Amino acid sequence: MAERSDGEAQARGMRQGPEENRLQGHWLLAKMGKRVLRPGGLEMTQTLLDRAALAPGEMVVEFGPGVGKTASLLLVKNPRLYIGVDPNPEGAPALTEVLGQFPQVSTQMVRAVAKETGLESESVDMVMGEAMLTMMNPSDKSATVREAARILKPGGRYVIHEMGLVPDDVDPKIASEILKEISRTIKVGARPLTLPEWTQVLVDAGLEIEYTHRNRMMLLEPKRILADEGVRGVLWILKNMVTNAAGRKRMLAMRAMFRKHADHLCGIGIIARKPR
């Protein structure tokens, strides 16, 4: 049998190492107890939902519901139907538990990518998507936004909450280096945009911009974690950090990276409406 090269042995060792070394950033944080994985925090999500004003009896679709934190905020509005669209099974048990807390709302899960939901055209009143377009290449970003526009009824609104770059005229070389470092650290391609770039993606899909909002990117800062997760959530995360060395190392590396680029990163929220 041929001997393995040093590179092959190292790769094999990495595959056999702690799962935390391989997980994409959002699933690593979820495993460590972080339930709010939003660039602008729960505060921005709530602001967007208040502005979007989902009404009882309306139909809402959420792209990438994950473990169901935003789903709970949507379901408390008593929509007639909630549809979660997600190709990944990892968050399904937690999401199912959340959905079960709102028996008065009809719910449906669709195993599909957001750019090809299979839902009927002009069938829903609102589409919500958070921290998922950022992880897509430009082609998939555009395709997903077009799909949201397709399934929205005329007058329906599309709410996004994504990672952004500041200032609006950020040096392209700086932006490129930030994107590379984020992708290396969280182990998934990340392509945040400036506010004008995000709005252009929506406008190109035929949507009209109704509201924009920016907030500081403080995902892993103690103050934001407390605001997002509450005292019990913070204690749970701290317990996991104490007992899970590999997870703690990854979390601290992610926080260091976000701090390094704090002057150029933010959370961006936009509400866009499909013309009547």
TrEMBL record:
Record region (Disordered): 1-23
Molecular-function annotations in GO: S-adenosylmethionine-dependent methyltransferase activity
Listed InterPro entries: Methyltransf_11, Methyltransf_Superfamily, SAM-dependent_MTases_sf
Chain ranges of the Methyltransferase type domain: 62-160
Protein name (Swiss-Prot/TrEMBL): Methyltransferase type 11 domain-containing protein
Source species: Actinobaculum massiliense ACS-171-V-Col2
Classification of source organism: Bacteria, Bacillati, Actinomycetota, Actinomycetes, Actinomycetales
